[in-house]
Specification:
The protein is α+β, with helices and mostly antiparallel strands. Helix content is about 35%, strand content about 30%. Strand 1, helix 1 and strand 2 form a beta-alpha-beta unit.
Amino acid sequence: MKKDHVGCEHILYIVHGAVPETAKQIKEMAEEEFPGIDVRIHLLSHVFITHGGPGCVALQYIRK
């Protein structure tokens, strides 16, 4: 993310498999490391949880 100069012009999606506290910790780390970034947390769908397993966390960032 640093190589891509991620910042306030990006949205960071944190999607998780039933681990909201982990997602919250990642959000806090991202906000500290990338000031102004828009962070959104979502629960993974059941299909992805089946594939990735409970506790799976995925990150995606896009330009606004």
